[in-house]
Write a structure and sequence with these properties.
Shape: globular
Largest sheet: 4 strands, antiparallel
Order of helices and strands: HHEEEHEHEHHHEEHEEH
Structural class: alpha/beta
Number of strands: 9
Strand order of the largest sheet: 7-1-8-9
Distance between the termini: 49 Å
Helix content: 25-40%
Number of helices: 9
Length: 234
């Protein structure tokens, strides 16, 4: 006897044409129709890039502020002292500190989704790098999370900034909103992310840059996208 989960997935698969590569509009339309959970599922974009992350110049990572945010309330921690700490608090950071913040992290108290640090704090941040790194929380200049402009960084984080990077196999997975968002809002967010990734295409890559693309929900199968359309997003 099939489980309820297996039955649910089978019913969702009937809504997808497995042999079709969807354009952006129809892909979003279909993925929204796959909502089946009792919560507001996240819409995720997955891309397979024609890069070899073992080469430093092909390690693609960056950040983008989604026009309509992610639909998730983001808690931000900031490593800063003095005036910069005051600026971070005024900008709405949830946790601000230096040695005390590092100690909290060492004790396993990580109640935040993004970490920002001023450049002078990076030696301290490095001491908890082994904890933050695996969780994807390590501040990095390429994502704008190591900066003296803490007010701007906190504002970006709160308004929908996502950080992305290729994994060992050249894949990027990133949230682009919630299934409750309108199709237009999901599309705007998706185009902003794809545009940013296309701009980061290394000169040394050969062949197709985007070799695979798919949209999915937290609890759904994926909808394959036309990669040529994605590469044309500028």
């Amino acid at each position: 006897m099939k489980s309820k989960v297996a039955k649910r997935v089978q019913n969702l698969l009937k809504k997808i044409d497995d042999g079709k590569l969807y354009d952006i509009d129809s892909g979003i339309n279909v993925v929204k129709s796959l909502a089946s959970a009792k919560f507001d599922e996240t819409v995720e974009l997955a891309l397979r890039l024609g890069v070899d992350p073992r080469h430093a110049d092909q390690m693609i990572r960056g950040a983008v502020v989604l026009p309509h945010g992610t639909g998730k309330k983001v808690r931000v921690a900031v490593f800063a002292k003095g005036i910069k700490a005051d600026e971070a608090k005024e900008a709405g950071a949830d946790v601000v500190g230096d040695e005390d913040l590092a100690e909290e992290i060492k004790n396993g108290n990580i109640d935040f989704d993004m970490v920002i640090a001023t450049p002078d704090m990076m030696a301290l941040v490095g001491k908890v790098g082994r904890i933050l790194g695996p969780k994807g929380l390590m501040p990095n200049p390429k994502t704008g999370t190591v900066t003296a402009e803490v007010s701007k960084a906190v504002a970006n984080a709160k308004s929908g900034q996502i950080n992305f990077r290729v994994d060992k196999k050249g894949n990027i997975h990133a949230p682009i909103g919630k299934v409750s968002f309108s199709e237009d809002k999901i599309k705007d967010n998706m185009l902003e992310l794809v545009k940013t990734i296309n701009r980061l295409k290394p000169a040394s890559t050969k062949g197709k840059f985007i070799r695979g693309g798919a949209l999915s929900l937290t609890m759904s199968p994926s909808v394959k996208l036309d990669t040529q359309i994605l590469m044309d997003v500028k």
